[in-house]
Every structure is written in structure tokens, then in C-alpha cells.
TrEMBL record:
Signal peptide: none annotated. The keyword Lipoprotein does not apply. Residues 56-387 form the Enoyl-CoA hydratase/isomerase domain. The keyword Nuclease does not apply. Pathway: Amino-acid degradation; L-valine degradation. It catalyses: 3-hydroxy-2-methylpropanoyl-CoA + H2O = 3-hydroxy-2-methylpropanoate + CoA + H(+). This is 3-hydroxyisobutyryl-CoA hydrolase. Hydrolyzes 3-hydroxyisobutyryl-CoA (HIBYL-CoA), a saline catabolite. Has high activity toward isobutyryl-CoA. Could be an isobutyryl-CoA dehydrogenase that functions in valine catabolism. Pfam families: ECH_2 (PF16113). Belongs to the enoyl-CoA hydratase/isomerase family. Its EC number is 3.1.2.4. Keywords: Hydrolase. One of its GO terms (biological process) is L-valine catabolic process.
Amino acid sequence: MPSLAAAAAARRAGEALRRGVMGGRYLSSLRPSPATAAAPDSDEVLVEGKASARASVLNRPGHLNALTTTMGARLNKFYESWEDSPDIGFVMMKGSGRAFCAGGDVVGLRQLINEGKLDESKDFFRTLYSFIYVLGTYLKPHVAILDGVTMGGGGGVSIPGTFRVATDRTVFATPEVHIGFHPDAAASFYLSHLTGHVGEYLALTGEKLNGVDMLALGLATHYSISEHLDLVDERLAKLVTDDPSVIDSSLAQYGDLVYPDKTSIIHRLAVIDKCFSHETVEEIVDALESEAAQLNEEWCTLALKRLKEASPLALKVSLRSIREGRYQTLDECLVREYRMSINGISKPFYHDFCEGVRARLVDKDLAPKWDPPALEFVSEDMVDSYFAPLGEFEPELKLPTEQREAFI
């Protein structure tokens, strides 16, 4: 296997999205056998692999592989050791069951907040964001298999890596505004670098994308029918390499050729740019109402409905976050998002997060009582406070930018 002289090339292989341009033995199956929902903490991230590859398997299928602090810590540990090993050429990540990863375990996080365990809540964000920075600056090629639900933090632990394989089962979204939060886990970085104002659209509506649309937008680098993943698996398991171009060609060779259909987001880009380029959320809503009346198209009406269902505070915070992310590096976005997240689960802002999770995922009545209840009551001072420094006795997120080069 070549030495890590190819490390710089591995980074360059993923730079299109980051810059805003849009004889070994087989690995175990890319779709692990079902595991119990109540897996012990040590089984929440499994390890598979032979020859030149290692695969981390997110293993909470009963919770759609939602991430916990323990999982983030194990990922950090594994990836550090794999990066240092001369016998490992590339690394993979996949999920058990019907999801890749549905994001962070926000139900568990809400419980911690309600119990007053803020330090444990902060550990969750610190651990997860630190791993995402490791992934985004990883010295070896990384392949994420996005087979199934891929939402919120699921995008964070995959999109900053080198390769992302979407499938016909992929369902992607950043739906945080509907639980009173902001798209985090590096979302303000990768969404803001998409074409036009698609990032604002996805962040403010929580719109779901399929695998073909992920590929079309550059959120995914390759596509495979889910039933064909075994062929991808077999090919990757035979590779003894750390060369990203070899992995890229193998994924392309064993992937599937697909084209966006007439419902694809690519046919809406002009209208999305027209509406979501406006400076304020209020102006975006007005523009979308005008377009909905003229176009009489379902997607436009649905987008408007989702905007009106979301937390007004979260909408304004998220719009600013995406706009700031467009001019920031990955580490700068993560540091800012950490500040926003800690403010968002602390007084006076934690109400919307706890209420949104309750309404969507706990009681499931879909009737959150937001505070403030409408856009006109969300002041600029509130938004500024959400982005404010954490204070003298609250440490900011520290990332090893001197040891690990930040992307620009």
C-alpha cells in the first residue's frame, strides 16, 4: 500500500463541495444484520473490516442510529487510531437497519436539559463537533454509505468526508427549525456552499431530498441502488490503497447511473433563488406566497406551510447562520455553531428546543407553542444574543486547528 503521501490528494478529492463548487478479504456486509434496539453503550458503534479498510457501524437501529455522547467519543477514538495505523488505507461509515443516522439523540438531550444536567448536554455538542472536525480534516479517504434516513447530525458525520454514497433508500433533511433549533453539526458550512440559495431553502423548510437529488446538488458524490451495495462492498474490500482516485473510480464503476426526474429540486432552483435570496425571513415568506399563488405547485405550497410551522426564532437564527457560514471555514462554522447550540439549550432560549422536541418526537401532537409565537415578535437583539460569546466562565469550543489544517 502506498504511504500517506496521498493524504493531500484525499483532501482535494472532497474540495469541490467544501469550496462551494458543486487481495484482501471481504468486509462484512454494508448492511449489517439487525441488532437489538437496546444495545449496550459499547455496541452503539461497531467496527468491521479486513485488508486495508475499517468501517464504523452506527448501531442504534431502534433509534435510527441517533448519536449520543458515547457514540461520538467512540468515533473519535476509533478514527484517531485508524489515522495513525499504516495498515489502514481508508475508512468507512455506515448504519444499522433502515437508517444511516437520524442525527443527534435530541430526545435524550431534552431529558438532560429538563433534569438540569447542562454540563452533560454541553459534552454532547463538544464531542460531536470535535469528531466532525476530525472527519473534515481526515488524512485518509473516507466513504460514508448513506443508505436510509440521513438527517441533521447524520449529514454532519458524513458530508465533510471525502465520499458519500447515496442510494434509492436515502432520505436527507436538516429539519432542526421544526424542533426549535438551528441546522448544526457543520450544516451551516456545507449547506451554505451549495449552489445559489438552496442552502437557505433546505435550512428553513427542512425539505427532504432523495438520493438522486443529493447527488445532483453535490451533497453525495456517488449513487448506488441499495440492492447493489454488496457489489460495492466486495469491490472496496479488495482494495489495498490509500489513493482517493482509486476509491473514486471503484465507487463509480460499481455504482448506478441515475438522472433527476421531473419532481427533482433541480427544476425549482430559479424559484428557490428568487425567493430565498431575500435578506429577511419575512421577505422570504412574502416572496414564496407570491410564487405559490402564481405557480400553484405543490412543492411551493408545502414549503410555505413548513416555514409557517417552524419556530420563528429558529428561522431567523438559521438564516443568519447559513449566511455567515458562506464566508467561514469548517472550523469557524463549528465554533460558531457550538456557541449557538449552547445558547440555544440555555436560558432564555431553551424553551423552543424542549417544546419542539416534545411536540414532534415525544408527545407527537405536532402543536408546539413557540416563544416568541410569530416572526414579528423576534427582535434583532434576540438573534444577536443567540450568537453571543458564551461568557467569561463558559469555555468556547477548542479545535486542533494548528495540528489539523482547516478547509477554506
